Write the structure tokens for this entry.
Amino acid sequence: MELFDEGLHSGVNLALNVEKVVYREKTDLQDLMIFENSQFGRVMSLDGAVQTTEKDEFIYHEMFVHVPVLAHGKVSRALIIGGGDGGAARQLMKYKNIAVTMVDIDRTVVELSKKYMPSVSGGAFDDPRLNLIIADGCKFVQETDEKWDVIIIDSTDPHGPGEVLYTQEFYADCKGCLSSGGIIITQNGVPFVQESELRTSYDRLSNLFKDVSFYLAAIPSYVGGVMAYGWATDEQDHRKVSLSRLVERYVEAGIATDYYTPEVHLAAFALPLHIQKMLTRED
Ligand code: AG3
């Protein structure tokens, strides 16, 4: 049987059985593959790195979306940069009163996700509350004068086309698109194997925002342990929101989740010591 061999990080490879290749295409922008695996269901990879799987995407996307939305408490507009598979958009659609703009550079990812992994977007692309724009997210945030309460940067890892989405310039442009008290969340990799990415984002975001931190979740198909989401905002109270307030908001929103709970939300911000040390180490 064919093996998918990830090799995203040096010295460690994730090998997945390829039960069946569902789709494979090299677009102008990236090398995309969708295949079937007995544990993860359909898996989408870009340039040889796992992006989304049918079975564990709920963990990644629920934590990406519900943590900032419920911490903020008054989100009416959300912006997704990347996220072409529609998983983050599906989570945002669970809120009746949120309008979503999504900017992805590659239409192919959107079309293939819709066609071959429909449960990931779950109809979000047909929802009139979603405004999908196919464009370069970097240019978009430079040029728009709209504002959003939450910006979700659902990017690939910082290699190749996704690299610009980790620069200080890009973070500053995103900040320019935030309404007052707004929150930016980033996909910040798996700290055990991507320490320098964590540190770099921490330093760059800290130059711009009053409250910068990370929260964690284990995504089984991202090899190397827990993954970190970057958290950046000028409103220091968002991270200190109480459990009872979160429970109130969660119940009020009436959303169904499979990973997220208000308790998990607060616990996710507790950083193990070795990860705290990565942020403060003098190099
Ligand atoms: N965004 C995250 C990709 C992370 C890949 N890293 C890895 N395989 N360790 C993908 C888009 C999901 N909506």
Remarks:
- The pocket of AG3 is lined by residues 8, 49-52, 83, 85, 87-88, 154, 156-157, 187, 190, 222 (CB under 6 Å).
